[in-house]
Amino acid sequence: MKWSGENLMPFFLFILLLTLQSYFITLSHSQSIIKNLPGYSGDVPFKLETGYVGVGKNEEVQLFYYFVESQNNPEEDPLICYIPGGPGSSALLAFLYEMGPLSINADNGTTNATLVLNENSWTKMASIIFVDIPAGTGFSYAKTKEAWVSSDSIVADLAHDFVKKVQ
Q1: How do the pLDDT tens digits run along the chain, 167 residues long?
Q2: Number of neighbours of residue 80 by Cβ within 10 angstroms
Q3: Residue 117 in contact with residue 101, Cβ under 8 Å?
Q4: 133: CB partners within 8 A, 6+ apart
Q5: Which of 20, 42, 89, 128 is buried most deeply by CB count within 10 Å?
Q6: Domains parsed from the chain with CATH numbers
């Protein structure tokens, strides 16, 4: 098989996603305001915060979140709490492929995928908190063996606990 830019694009998309995941893992051990991201030229023009919120009886589940402040009027605009379906699908996918402020540009005339502003981002009208839930999804994890157990009612309780803590 002859390698060309077209054949290599899925590989470079994978590398960009891996780089972003590594970057977020590095920053995820505390609340962090993110100013720049790999693949994006310059500082991001919106407020992006990532971090963990401990939930459950003894905070045995650590839920990872991405918070993007509204680019319009953060004081008046609504707050959307995005919990991905699945389970097992990271909120990073919605952040990059659906309603988040950035999207992946794989069609930029090079073999390198880049991040570009999403013209249709919901963050133009609302603040969004993207949550990796349950434990094991995205960057969220459990501290105990028992906390890895999950069901619809457990996830609902953890999500409720999360919402109470981030108010």
Answers
A1: 454 555 556 665 666 666 665 555 554 445 788 898 888 899 999 999 999 999 998 999 999 999 999 999 999 999 999 988 766 789 998 999 899 999 988 776 666 788 999 999 999 999 999 999 999 998 999 999 999 988 889 999 999 999 998 87
A2: 16
A3: yes
A4: 63, 83, 84, 87, 140, 155, 158, 159, 162
A5: 128
A6: 5-166 (3.40.50.1820)
